[in-house]
């Protein structure tokens, strides 16, 4: 079990593999700069101020309710198979919920089940109950009738993952692809054999042997000769098996949705 304690303007996580982790400070100024940079300056400053002021106490409160926070080591590699004395991770990605989104939902459901909160399944919201601009409640469709719920409301919507159609067309499956020869790999992934092999040969010709260390930027780079540059870990591709990974754009955040204000 990881324990979260407060230390000035950082969160310290202990337990598990915490003793192996070297992580710098993540100050409020750094946090604010990251949000503004990621959004190209479009972050709502009033809401950002609330995140900065209430972030720590919110993380702590969620943990007290039963959400299992953990170090983000397992997100990037299998830490049970890595033998290192120290692991450096960026403070911006230092903390996560165990098992990520699925784990968060499981934890929250366990919390709800310990209360007297009623849960209605297969009961989608149909319409808001309003008095002018005031929202009094929500009308929901349940089996063959409608139910009206009155009181305070929290409206939430998911990203594309909630749509089976969008989910199926947005992600790749059946990767990675493995073969003991470059020719065999090219055939399996359906790309031009000659171009592929020629690219690997040219890449290998301007690289130098070395040790691959995932946790440190080694500066072993290629900044010329190839159309696609390599800023770190530019090592020869010459050991079998050869592995090709399917890649796609990753959604770090789900953008869009319901607009909120600072009173939400």
From TrEMBL:
Ranges where the FAD-dependent oxidoreductase 2 FAD-binding domain occurs: 11-194
Oxidoreductase keyword on record: yes
InterPro entries reported for this sequence: FAD-dep_OxRdtase_2_FAD-bd, FAD-oxidoreductase_2, FAD/NAD-bd_sf, Succ_DH/fumarate_Rdtase_cat_sf
Transmembrane segments: none
Molecular functions per Gene Ontology: oxidoreductase activity
Pfam families membership: FAD_binding_2
Top-level taxonomic group: Eukaryota
Keyword Flavoprotein recorded: yes
Signal peptide, first to last residue: none
Cofactors required: FAD
Keywords in alphabetical order: FAD, Flavoprotein, Oxidoreductase
Protein name (Swiss-Prot/TrEMBL): FAD-dependent oxidoreductase 2 FAD-binding domain-containing protein
